[in-house]
Amino acid sequence: MKNPKFNSMDSWAIWDIPDTDLTNKTPEERQKFFGDNYRPNHFPSEKLTKDLDAKLESLKYVIAGMNPGNAAIDQVNNPF
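Below the sequence we write its predicted structure tokens.
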């Protein structure tokens, strides 16, 4: 990434997605497909490219959330 402005509370992840077309699935069905596809302690590094900026630009969805856990104890509380 060209200009990352991360701190100790930032994190990101890449998930394996099911091979099944989820377009017409209910939320419960989607959750089951993702649950069935989950592999503990697996990071899909093959999905990372040398040009992470290009990869991020090609993504269809990005989910953002705040979950600082214990990392926030010594951090200034800035609004999310």
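The chain is about 20% helix and 0% strand.
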